[in-house]
Amino acid sequence: MPQAHFGPELFTFLRALRAHNERAWFAAHKERYERDVRGPALAFVSDFATPLARISAHIVADPRPVGGSLFRLHRDTRFAKDKTPYKTHAGIQFRHAAGRDAHAPCFYLHLEPGRVFAGAGVWRPDAAALATLRAGLVHDPGGWKKAIAGKAFREQCHFDGELLKRPPRGFAPDHPLGEHLRRKDYLVVTDWTEKDALQPDFLARFTSFCRITAPFNAYLAQALGLEF
After folding, report:
1. Are residues 89 and 15 in contact, defined by beta-carbon separation less than 8 angstroms?
2. Contact (Cβ atoms closer than 8 angstroms) between residue 119 and residue 110
3. pLDDT by residue (tens digit) across 71-81?
4. Which of 29, 61, 192, 218 allows an S-S link to 116, with CB 3.0 to 4.6 Å?
5. What is the sign, positive or negative, of the torsion defined by CA atoms of 215, 218, 220, 223?
6. For residue 138, how far is the Cα from the chain centroid?
7. Which residues contact 158 (CB under 8 A, 6 or more apart)?
8. Are 189 and 115 in contact (CB under 8 A)?
9. Exposure pattern of 34-46 as b/e (b: 16+ CB <10 Å)?
């Protein structure tokens, strides 16, 4: 029988961090973070490498403690009004090998008290990448429709992210794909619960999500000139 990667201690720690988001508190409880959050998350990344390789040869599972798939816990507060030093969730991003940041197609797992979800796609692409994706929809509408037409995709996933109020300049207001052309993010998610994340089959469930959304990510990669 497979063993659960995550225990309730992960969410217990993150709730406590939310209540005590201070450097002194974290320093006193760093061992809990390493044991209950970071360690299990890195093990999940390592164990996902093999099933991920069967889905895409170009999306990477990187279990390095620093600079790998697990996002750092420290927040960048340089330009933020909120100066709390730590994130109160664990974020794991399986990035495209050709992407140097979050703007290439990826798979993502978010673990937060009260909010657990998986994501696939491109979050907040820069202006050039966004223009390329929109142009790709116009030039290959059939490919786009096919990428999001799977029964499991439609039943289990929903689009997320911001929308413009109207189609961007240069695109017809009544374009059949107008809603998708208004997207600032080309991202789909599946929502789960904390209880789901604690189950022994959670890795298999996440793997299934990635398989279901692989045609969507493959379409985005092709539109951006990347292999999938």
Report:
1. no
2. yes
3. 999 998 888 78
4. 192
5. negative
6. 25
7. 188, 189, 190
8. no
9. eebbbebbbebbe
Alpha-carbon gap, residue 218 to 126, rounded angstroms = 19
The pTM of this model reads 0.95
Strands (E), the chain: 90-94, 106-112, 115-122, 158-160, 186-192
Beta bridge partners of 59: 96
Is the Cβ–Cβ distance between 189 and 160 less than 8 Å? Answer: yes
Structure tokens at 105: 């197609």
| CA dihedral sign, ordered 179, 223, 120, 122 | negative
* Residue pointed to by tokens 């508190």: 25
Query: Which tens digit of pLDDT belongs to each residue from 4-29?
Result: 999 999 999 999 999 999 999 999 99
**Both tokens of residue 34?**
């390493």
Catalogue all structural domains in the chain, each as residue range(s) with its CATH number: 8-223 (3.30.930.20)
Tokens in use for 14? 């993150």
